[in-house]
Amino acid sequence: MESVTLDTPAGGLHAARWRPETTDPTRSPIVLLHDSLGCVALWREFPARLAAASGRKVIAYDRLGYGKSAPHPGPQPASFIADEAEAFRALREHFRLARFVALGHSVGGGMAAEIAGQHAEGCEALITVAAQAFNEPRTLAGIREAEQAFQHPAAMARLARYHGDKADWVLRSWTDTWHSEAFAEWTLDPALRRVSCPTLALHGEHDEYGSLAQPRRIARLTPGPVEPLILACGHVPHRECPERLIAALLPFLADPTAA
Question: Which residues have CB under 8 Å from 255's CB, separation 6+?
Fold first, then answer.
């Protein structure tokens, strides 16, 4: 794994890249976008495994305010999902990504969809994993339950292990944004309708933060496959069942246009 800090006007962004032992130069890199409490480190072994199995380079980065990236300058705006497509430009320029595959987990899946639409000339395929396409009661109930769990000091200590003194900002950005009035009617529909590349929506059948209506909506509003792939897991397939997740991804990555 190679690590780098990208200089941006908003502050440094921490990024990492994994290279497979044998790389096919015709295969575009896969860019990973993390969830609301995530960062590069919390992908754990998944990027290395994905690189080795797919023969593609894999790139991940910490969004501003997360992990090893610089603190966010203020409260997270309600437009943060759409805004990430602009922040992504710094990563794309640094790694010279003429073409790429966008793979996002949870809220990172929404960001990946925004990127696929706003960087359409470069995004050859979109993969969403446990992504939210709209705000539903199940999502809010899951967040409330998690928020209660973080009342325990040990839980916040684990979060601080990855985000340092930004941990409280990370938690509040997640819980407060999703429960805000500005986010009550949020949907990913406009972004999904802008996606022109092949799209694969994966979801866990036991996902705590979204029903199967979420991936079905993503699949319906994008070029497809028409039916999402449902895995026997919860919200975090890359930790719960990484082998099954990679096995599900490989046929799509081999030929997205065959879907």
Answer: none
